[in-house]
Amino acid sequence: MIKREDVYKIGVFNKPHGIHGELSFTFTDDIFDRVEAEYLICLLDGIFVPFFLEEYRFRSDSTALVKLEGVDTAERARMFTNVEVYFPAKHAEDAGPGELTWDFFVGFRVEEVNHGDLGEVTEVDTATINTLFVVDHQGEELLIPAQEEFIQNIDQKHKVITMDLPEGLLALDETEEV
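Structure tokens predicted for Ribosome maturation factor RimM:
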């Protein structure tokens, strides 16, 4: 059984393309093209299900047409409309340093050298020029700059990012006024 911690989201299937079962795929990470991967994982009814790739071709830098094995008609392809697509983290580790995208780090724990465990990365905000880890810290949302100069170590096996953040960046020591 595939677990959420074994995968990370790389995109979503949009709608069928043509009559032979091709799907339009909007992706945030082209890792499926950069490492040897024979399958993608779809989230269907809350269950992660692998589907073998028959073929794919790029339409732009963020969309591709994908043909899954066993999906041969537009009707069958319609079942995948708006289905989230994931990639196995174990294959992403085959990518060399610098080849991973920020989305790979969702689910990692962030530890800070002075403050200890800060929480889990729930998403990565790339909407601005400064990429931010969105971290769930005891139910509160922390925004932490995802800059290489602050990252001391990344343990992919244990899913831990160790950071050394500038003093004052985190307001964790402040006491709330009563």
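Residues 106-163 form a domain with the SH3 type barrels. fold (CATH 2.30.30.240).
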